[in-house]
Amino acid sequence: METEPCCEEQRDCVSDPTEPQIADGISELTESNSLTKLPCGPAEEGEELGKKEPSETESHAVESKSTEIKGSANCEQEREKAECKIEKKLRKTNSWKMVRFQDPSTEEDVVERDSSAEILFPEYAVEEWTSTPFEDLFMAEDWENITEDGMLRKKVLEPGDIQVPHSTWGQEVTVKMQGVLEDRTVVEKDCKLVFVIGEGDVIQALEECVMSMQKGEITLLLADSQYAYGLLGREPEIPAWAPLLYQLQLLDIRDKPDPLTLPITDRIRIGNQKRERGNFHFQREEFSLAARAYCVALDVLTTRTKDGDDVGMKEEEEEVREYRIKCLNNLAAAQLKLEQFSEALHTSRDVLTLQPNNVKALFRTGKLLSDKGEYKEAMEVLKQALKLEPTTKAIHAELSKLVKRQSGGQDTQQWRVKPAKGISWKFILGALVVALGSLVTSMILTARN
What we know:
- Among the domains are: about 1-30 and about 265-340, Methane Monooxygenase Hydroxylase, Chain G, domain 1, CATH 1.20.58; about 30-50 and about 90-255, Chitinase A, domain 3 (Roll).
- With about 450 residues, the protein is an alpha+beta fold.
- Helix 7 runs parallel beside helix 9 (about 315-335) and helix 11 (about 360-370) runs antiparallel to helix 12 (about 375-390).
- The chain is about 45% helix and about 10% strand.
- The longest helix has about 55 residues, at about 395-449.
- The chain contains 13 helices and six strands.
């Protein structure tokens, strides 16, 4: 994954119901309007995908102006002609430049072309890629199944190097790819997508497919929604339950680099990308995938070397520490969603080791300790959190709950003692009766004697 991270605060999207007023959930959530992962390559490249070419803007301006000054008879004709041209041009959406493939037979009718919207495999604009219904492709005999259920299929357009072994789980690969919906709207596009197989950087369809490809191979990949974005889709580009068709080329296969051998700047970049992928999964309520992504990010976000020494400047070490805190807080939130309470408590304490006054971690730690029955320590932690944020309602609510739990424990003990008092006088009376009976019996026996 080769891009600088872009982060935006979106805490409201994932608020934890157990802590409604705290800026909780995951830290600095990102807009997940990019590709199957955050875009590869420099940030500038990703931005260029969303820009309108100057020539296109000027062309529309000229067309609009010329249409306005024509007579009413020609006006309607020119408008229809302009609309027809625009319909043939490549479409866009808000997140990045979404495009439609052009029919080669009508290409000469389009005056302007958007260079950033060029297809990545122009020499492979085969019928399956441009117009064949997906239903036919799922049934086609010249396609091979990648999975036994027949919901993930491929057709090789150009074979790769058979001398190079297939990629395997845990290896890092680079692919060139673009994906379309059935109406051939491009929803994913990357000329150099880098990901590690098995770390959830991309959808399952891409991971499964690259393991079946040879280096250099170009293939068509048809993926049912269960191997893509499923029930949730990916707004606004990919609707729910949408199958996808990809063109893929496997450019490179290599072993995943050891994070401890990377420069600190690379560790920060990769760690942040893993964290943002975790945020993407968290927003989709895929908490297991989110937790895995945060754990991978924490493995990368370190200043340690193989020898156990610290490397990096003070500023870099501080930056790594800040990102580790974010990852740990996010991981604790995911663990709570998974009801892994012991793990969440351990993770929250790890945060406090790095930052003792982190309110989120204090709140979670106090709440988990309270739920565990360790009231004294929970009270100390929650009071510390309240001291830092005295106006936060969630902390007040949790403290009130803790006080009720403590008082409830005392009430229970008192309630158990009360029946004992009620029973004691009966026992005393019974004992007196027995004693009197024994005394009378003794006196009778004495008199007889």
